[in-house]
Amino acid sequence: MNVTTGDLAFIPLGGTGEIGMNLNVYRCDGQLLAIDCGIGFGGADTPEAEVMVPDPAWLAERRNQLVGLVITHAHEDHLGAVAALWPMLRCPIYAGPFAAAVLRRKLGEAGLMREVKLETVPLGGSLQLGPFGLTFLRVTHSVPEAQALAIRTRHGLIVHTGDWKLDPEPLLGLPTDEAAFKALGDEGVLAMVCDSTNAMVEGHSGSEAEVRRNMAVLLKGMKGRVAVTCFSTNVARLESIALAARANGRRVALFGRSLRNAEAAARECGYLTSLPPFVSEDEAGDLPDDQLLIMATGSQGEPRSALSKIAADTHPNIALGEGDTVIFSSRMIPGNERAIIKVQDELTRAGCVVMTADDHMVHVSGHPARDELKKLYALVRPKYSVPTHGEWRHLTEHANLAESLGAQPILVEDGDVLRLGPGVPDIVGEVPFGRLVVDGERLLPLDGGVLAARKKMLFNGVVIASLAVDQAGRVLGTPRISAPGLFEEQDPASGQIASELARGVGDLSNPTKREDSSLREAARNLVRKSVGRRLKKRPSVEVHLIRV
Questions:
Q1: What pLDDT digit, counting tens, does each position of 333-386 carry?
Q2: Range of 426's domain?
Q3: Sign of CA dihedral 94, 97, 99, 104
Q4: Number of domains in the chain
Q5: Which pTM was predicted?
Q6: How many CB atoms neighbour CB 58 within 10 A?
């Protein structure tokens, strides 16, 4: 689709109709502005993928029209994909001080810091990027310095909320700038593109101060080692946990790279100043159990996280067991339930007491519940509402609420082109979008051949057949069959399949036996049928053919 001049459009490429992977694009008079660039997690429907990012191919093809990438805050689902995708976009990046500090570490680890133009925007600052006049607005969220955006164009004013909430007692920074949102409403807002994560939750999301008060009480009288896991960039939560530990005679050790990076970024920006340096992983094991509190990565059950290794008893520096306590100070991101429950089960089996937000006040959401949404709509009074940041059920519930509050809702999903002006807003087309899987240092399309083969192997197994033949195609010796995940090493079925393969090759026509590719494909079919008869599966089959 060619970029159309003379209009204003919203084009979500990730994070609308799903949780995570936020990548939003605005088009104005032929120029493009990207907002946020985050990761998402694989779920039960994508077992072959652990971490995913939005596919930016459509945007990368138009990067000469891309005036910049703006980051609203430092959560992974909003900036975690920058280092992976920036080489395709190669545009300037604009972020607040804390988000910029987090990004610098990520870009440095990727070896990109010298290439990327990363500009730190003061909190509440403004800048002009092509036809987009941007003003940052202070909002409260479960990370320092989250900001919404007022986007002024000749076609109208857009409010892009990012992630936000209304917290009457924020522990870091000031409350959401309600006066600034009201001023925008007085100015006249064409559309509000708004967070839908908690649109199904009645009431108020709660205050971070409640967690701080309860955490200090909860730790009183605990024996043994205590471990707490939460989102790494929730600096207020880290501070609350550390203060509660200090009040109960415990020192704090950080376990996990993302926690250490978040701490460094926080201290660089002037946070955590009341806390002494944390204990290193190497030193933690030397402290008496009743004097140690561990903060660990892995609140979402990530397999390579510190907490997952501790739960599996494979961590090199620390162990938990009978009499110890583990607190999950976080919510389950949809899709991660199975992985989180697995970690919790392993910890419980080891003898730990596991506490979660289901039965203790150890977490409040960083997203607005319905009462907060109602208040923001009363302040901003947008003509149109565009729900984003959520699955379809969240978007629909948000749309119904917005309509009841006087805003006309427009439901979109990833890939839609929503023209906001001129004229009546309407979905006028769609652009290509998709998901890429982070596989080591490379990116693979989720629907590509490599991951399709991996998923097939996961459910149907893989068989490797080694076969030696002479120039005429006669089998020499006995073929070797290896089928990890299908047969045990000494299973007689492997020998039976090898014998069937040798007989089947002997029955092939002479032209087939003399041509390598034809013989290899025929052998593959023989093995697949032989396994299928026994297991009712269609495994991936690889044939190693040696012609002597």
A1: 877 888 999 999 999 999 999 999 999 999 999 999 999 999 999 999 999 999
A2: 8-203+365-445
A3: positive
A4: 3
A5: 0.84
A6: 17
